Every structure is written in C-alpha cells, then in structure tokens.
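Fresh eyes needed here. Kindly weigh in on this sequence plus structure tokens:
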Amino acid sequence: MRPTRTAAAVAAVLAAVAAGPLATAQPAVAAPAPVPAPAKLSDDFNGDGYRDLVLLGGTYQKDYRVDVVYGTANGPGTRVQTIHQSQAAIPGTTEEGDFFGQSATSADLDRDGYADLIVASPGEAVGTATRRGGLTVVWGGPGGLGSGTVFHSPVPVANTDQKQGDAFGREVVAGDFDGDGDQDLAAVSESRDGGVVLLKGPFTRAGKTAGHALLGKNYGLLQVDRLVAGRVDADSATDLYIVGDDTSDSDNDEHAYLHRGGAAFATRASSVRIPDPSPKTGAFSRGPVAAALGDFDKDGYGDLAVGRAAAPNDKERGYVVVQYGGATGPNTARKPVKFTQDTAGVPGVSENGDLFGYSLAAGDVNDDGYADLAVGAPGEDLGSARDAGAVTVLFGRAGGLTGTGSKAYDQNKPGIGGSVERDDNFGNDLRMADYNRDGRADLMVETDDWVGNKLGMVHLLKGSASGITGTGSKDYTANSLKLSYNTFGGWFAR
C-alpha cells in the first residue's frame, strides 16, 4: 500500500502548480514502514496479553507431542492446541526417537508482535546422520500458533559423528544474546566444535537467520547439562549460563560458565565451580541438574541457583546451591550458599531419595521485589505414600535467600487438587510466571498423578501477598481439557 500523502505535501504541489512552470514541486518522501514492536510477553502466541502454557512430554504415536493451553484473565484456560509432526502445517513426520519436544522455548523471532514457539527434536535424522536434530519454529499470530519452519544445525556434518549427528537442540533457550534488539536462540550441539550454538535473529519463515556463532571454540570438549538464560549484569542484553563440564580440563568438576550478552557473547566471560558433594574423590558425581536465575537479594544482578538432586556420593539427598551475581557476573567474593532440607527453617528432613533440587523455578510470588525460589523434591515420602513429592518455596530478601519462613506444598494442602499417592512425584517439574496479570508470579507444578487411566496432572498455584497459596488453585488433566490422549504433560517449556 502506498503511504498517504500529508496535507502539507498536497499544499506544496498545489502551490507549485499555481506558481507556473519555473516552480518545481519536490515529491513527497514516503516515511519508512514502521518496524513491528516485539511481543510484550515471550509466551503470548495470540497477542491477547495473557501468557500461554506449553507442556511437553505427552505422547503421540511413538514419539512426543506438545500441548499449548491458551491463557485467560484467570490463568491458562480450556482452549488447547496440540502440535506434532504428523500435522500438515508442521514439517517432518512423527517417528520414534525424534524426541519432538524434548526441549522448547518461546520468543518473538520475527518481530511481528506475536510470540513464536521453538520446539527441538534432537533425535531427528537428517541425511545419513541419525541424530542430527533440528528446531521447529511454530509461528504465532492473531489466532494462535500456525505453520512451522525448521532450522537445522549450522555445524558441518564433518565436524560431528557422521552417523550420530550432534543432537542439535537437546537444550534450547531464547534471548537477545548479542544485544542488537532481535531475539536469538542458543541451542546445545553435541559436536566437537559446537557445544552451544548461537542462531542470530531475526528469523524468517523462509528459514533464514542473521548468522550464527559457535560457543564451543571457548572449550575443549563441552558436556552441557543445562542452559539458563536471563539477566545477570545490568545491561539489557540477555546473558547465558552454561551449566556443565569442560571435560578437557583437569578438575573434572561441574561449572557454570557465563557468556555475557552483547558483542562479545560468543567468548566465555567467567565461570564458577559448582560445589562438589564428594570431597573424598574430588570428582563430581553426575546426575540430574536443575538451574534457575533470579535476583534473590534485589541488588540488580542475577543470581544462579543450581539443584543437584541425585548425587550418589551425597546419598541422593539432594541440595541447591546459590551463587550470587555482581556487576560482571558471578560475585566470587560471596561464597555460594547451600540449601538442603536440614537447613534451618526449611520444612522436612534430608533423607535418601527425596531428590530435593530435582526441579527449580524462580519468580517473585508475593510482589515484594525479591525473586523467590521454588524447589521440587518429587521423591519426598509423605506418610506411607512413597515418592508422593513436595515443593518448597524459599523467599528472597535483603541479603538473599534463607530458610526462614520457607513453606512446603503437597497434595495434602488445602485447595490443591488430587490426593497424596505413591509415585505421584509432585514437583517433577516447575515453572513460575504471572499467568493472571496480578503482578505476582504463579507456580506451575507437574506431577505423575494417575487420573482414571490417564497419566499426568498439572497444578496452577497462585501467588499472593503471603506467598504461594492453594486458594483459587487450578489443575489440568487430559480429561479436564477434553484431550483424547492417555498422557498429559511431563515437563514445561522454558
């Protein structure tokens, strides 16, 4: 469409005509087309101002599917969109071992004002590489999520195992990592040169990006457990912690490697060692790793929480360690703080198999300006119910997190749906976000609860002035959402 001429431009043309042939009118200069503002919420796919909930791990045929529960003024509602690779709008075919939805994130990648969903399928075969992997971007719009475009790994096959590929996308997070205003993607690549790959925005529906960078050049051989994106220092660019181990070094310990957002993002800025639960051997015992980023002491810098739930040399009792942030990254002048169920004020007792720290989520649940930390212990026994599960919320305050005033939640608490049963694993995964726009983070809890003959229940526990509450809570199952599938949920997009 041609731009509308302004009244001043029309007047100039008329004046030129009236002045005769010696007066030449200058043509009106068309204003450049405005650049759409990026979506205000990274997970609002239809632009209605409410967060949408993405659930991963439900099964479809012999692989996974993704369920999107669209938001309302009272949190996620009843409108559900299911996405899998056998749909015409989604590239690929559902195949066993693709692991479509093993990880996912969301961001407005094309700056059209609608968040887009990025779904990884790290087991996807490409050519002769059986685990080459890929990222499917499902584009948002006024009606919600629509068609998809696949972005493959930029790492040459020659630099990966020819048969096994690089499992591109096993972990994926979004953010403006290079600080140019466009949303980028950081994804794990299990290759010699990749480690973590930065795909630079903006992205197009034709499968184009603004380029890429390989973060693995900063390491020998990088084994990644978690990617954690967010604000660590005070600038506007997104920072990234890579939680894992550079296996080429001599200490064989777990670290959190920081890449600061901006022009130098591809270069590792600093690292901090995750405390070793096994001082006798000096070797870190690998197991499930959870991580979350939040400003727990409200000093303007992001603090990193890492959960270690199943370290055999720590008798599987689990713990959470918090490394506070500073102006340039981890504040190494402050010693990391460790939390267990034996920490003063933390409910419960540290026991074998509790899996305290198996899942983590950070957010301000009481709107006091301090980020709070939710810690899942899905192996917690409650009475005779083995592995019933529980979640503990630690509150942020001046000086940071402490056990003082922390609260535990399980399916025995008033207002929380379901009942305490063996192997429910309440707290298997966690997510915090403000789903009802009241200024407080709400807590989503995933559990392996059986409802009839269908597996999976997800709880919404609302934030309040006093913290998380069961009052007004909601729960979601395959039956309540009228899904025909026998499984629902498993873990959340990040």
